[in-house]
Structure formats: structure tokens, C-alpha cells
Design a protein that fits this description.
about 20% strand, alpha+beta, four-stranded antiparallel sheet, globular
Length: about 160
């Protein structure tokens, strides 16, 4: 089974945040953690950080008393926009975790599922199972150099318009 990171860690991220997720687990026969990344071109990076700032401003000003997370997201979005304006690059990244169990035992699969989700929580990651796309996720997480966006069902021309 493969999970994807749906929410990255918030706040300060220390060097050992992924340590428990990366370590072998006695409840999972084999576990693979895959980091996928793509450097965004400067034009896409500029549009992305501008959209993030607009979104954060909207969230922070939508109510009279914004939550602390809205204020922090606005501060971080502004900081990212300033860094991008000074020439820093922007990277789009994802994290996937694949767990394999021995045999076809439903109980072992459930234990592996709970284990991976708990390990994701210790890394302050929100992991979600890739329901309906386990086969593609499994291949995309292998160290084969498969670029998943190249195999999507959405035509490349439409994907460029969405960016």
C-alpha cells in the first residue's frame, strides 16, 4: 500500500523529523519512503508564490479574529515571496511511503497501515492512502526515474494552462 503526503510539517522542522519514518519497523516487512521533487521555472515560481500570498491574505483577513495559523501562513508566504524575488528557486515536492507485508493476511495489512500512519504522525506529516491509484503510486515510488506527470491522463497543454 502506498500513501502520499497531503500536508507537509508546519512550523520549525528539525533535522531528525523523518528519522522514525525512515527507520525499519518490526510491524512492516518492507517500507520505502520516496521524496519526489521538481525545480519550478522562474515564471511558474513567481506565479505560485504570488497566488500563495493572495490566498494567505484572504484567509487572514476573512474574519475579525484570524487564527494563529492564518497569521503564520501569511508571514511564511510573504517571506517565501521575498526570497523568490531575490532570486531563490522554488521546488515542488512530494513524499510517498510504500509498505509491503508478507503474504495476504488482512490483519498484517491493517497493522502495517496503522504503523505507517502513526509513523507519519510522528514526522508531523498528514499521509493519505492513494485510493484508486495504488499501481501508479507504487511504480512512481520505485527508484526507476519514472516521472509521474509524464503519464497523467490530463494532456500536457491543459496542465500548462492550469499552472
Amino acid at each position: 500500500m502506498t500513501w502520499a503526503m497531503s500536508i507537509a510539517p508546519r512550523g520549525v522542522v528539525y533535522h531528525n523529523i523523518l528519522q522514525k519514518l525512515l527507520e525499519p519497523s518490526r510491524h512492516v516487512a518492507r517500507k520505502r519512503v520516496t521524496l519526489l521533487y521538481r525545480v519550478l521555472d522562474p515564471a511558474t515560481a513567481a506565479r505560485t508564490v504570488d497566488a500563495d500570498v493572495r490566498s494567505a491574505i484572504t484567509a487572514a483577513t476573512a474574519t475579525k479574529r484570524p487564527r494563529a495559523t492564518h497569521t503564520q501562513e501569511l508571514r511564511l508566504a510573504t517571506q517565501t515571496a521575498e526570497e523568490e524575488a531575490r532570486g531563490a528557486g522554488l521546488i515542488d515536492y512530494a513524499l510517498m511511503v510504500t509498505a509491503t507485508v508478507d503474504g495476504n493476511d488482512a490483519a498484517a495489512r491493517k497493522v502495517a497501515q496503522v504503523t505507517v500512519e502513526n509513523l507519519g504522525a510522528t514526522a508531523r506529516l498528514m499521509l493519505r492512502p492513494l485510493t484508486g491509484s495504488q499501481d501508479a503510486a507504487f511504480v512512481g515510488a520505485l527508484p526507476l526515474g519514472v516521472a509521474l506527470p509524464e503519464y497523467t491522463a490530463i494532456p500536457r497543454q491543459l496542465r500548462r494552462l492550469a499552472q
